[in-house]
Amino acid sequence: MARGRAHDEARRGKKTPFGPPMTLANMRMNGVYAVIATCEACGHKADVNVDAMPERVTVPEAGRGLRCSRCGGKQINTRPAWHTAAAGALPPFRPPRA
Fold this sequence. Notes:
The protein is an alpha+beta fold. It is 19% helix and 16% strand. It has helices at 5-11, 24-29, 82-87; strands at 34-39, 45-49, 76-80. The longest helix is centred in the first third of the chain and has 7 residues, at 5-11.
């Protein structure tokens, strides 16, 4: 069975290059409508519904306008909340504050 070069390099311990970041459109096609937002300052984590954001936004960009509800930090990392797809539960949508 023939396998790709990336598979062979991974077996030998070489890292393969990462692709472009996932967009919200791609995330939604996979049944996920929320991201896990993690504050870099205090480590607080929360699921954030991103239905109101455009499809062209990437998952890492989704955290740019967020603020930590615990410490007020602005450095927020985001990743898809895969656990919400299986459970079907989403956090309620709260429009951004003006």
